[in-house]
Amino acid sequence: MLSIKNLNVKYDNIRVVHDVSLNIENGELIALIGANGAGKSTILKTLSGLIRPESGHIFFEGKEITKLPSHEIVEKGIIHVPEGRQIFAKMTIEENLKLGAYQQKDKNLIKEKMELAFDLFPILKQRIRQLAGTLSGGEQQMLAIGRALQGNPKLLLLDEPSMGLSPLMTQQVFDVLTKLKDSGITMLLVEQNAYDALEISDRTYILETGRIIMEGKSSKLIEDPKVKEAYLGGD
């Protein structure tokens, strides 16, 4: 579904992503883990068209999208749940969700995706007319994911969905990601909570200072002594 080949990205003439290549097959949940500043979020922003790469190629469903503007990338079905949630605080839950469907024309599909968000996150339906800015951090994350689903994503990009959440809320978010995976939605998950990311993903790429240093099946990497020591707190 998605193929990145030799991607290089610069910030202010400093290269932060170095020759990154990765592939995502239809229906996979792929994790991208690494320390702060490793370049994980930069890769997602580049996939979304928010940052232009210095060089390299990005292909989606067999067609190159490297130079497409972000709105055309969204139209192709790549939807980004950004770090920090970035919900519209002065708008209601309902208004935030409707904005996520702004490119959809099929009224039945819009209704279906709205119901999906409420099924996954019942509290959003209970508080549908509440201002989004008054929600807790965990509830805002639920809203950010629910809003992304309104765009009917073929590929969902998730940037640190557990950031700042309590352990209980983190578990709820990861439970929802598992449900989305089981429903067939393809996902690329950037996450500092390495253990949980490895637990729910099919494959994982490990990024260090802008370079992929390891990749493989998550079930094997989670048992790798080097991965345990560096990212999982040892034995």
What can you tell me about this protein's structure?
By secondary structure, the protein is of the alpha/beta class. The protein is 37% helix and 26% strand. The chain contains ten helices and ten strands. The strands form two sheets. A six-stranded mixed β-sheet has the order 6-7-8-3-9-10, with helices on both faces. Strands 2-1-4-5 form a four-stranded antiparallel β-sheet, covered by helices on one side. Helix 3 packs parallel to helix 6 and helix 4 (107-120) runs antiparallel to helix 6 (137-149). The longest helix is centred in the C-terminal third of the chain and has 16 residues, at 167-182. The chain is globular and about 45 Å long. The termini are far apart. The relative contact order is 0.18. The mean pLDDT is 94.
Q: What's the average pLDDT?
A: 94
Low-confidence stretches: none
Largest sheet: 6 strands, mixed
> Helix count, per DSSP?
10
Strand content: 25-35%
- What is the SS-derived class? alpha/beta
Shape: globular
Strand order of the largest sheet: 6-7-8-3-9-10
Span of the ends, CA to CA: 35 Å
Order of helices and strands: EEEHEEHEHHHHEHEHEEHH
Considering DSSP H and I runs of 4 or more, what fraction of the residues is helical? 25-40%
Number of strands: 10
Return Rg in Å.
17 Å
Secondary structure layout:
Layout: E1 2-11, E2 14-24, E3 29-33, H1 40-47, E4 55-60, E5 63-64, H2 70-75, E6 78-81, H3 93-100, H4 107-120, H5 122-126, H6 137-149, E7 155-159, H7 167-182, E8 186-190, H8 194-200, E9 203-208, E10 211-217, H9 218-221, H10 225-231
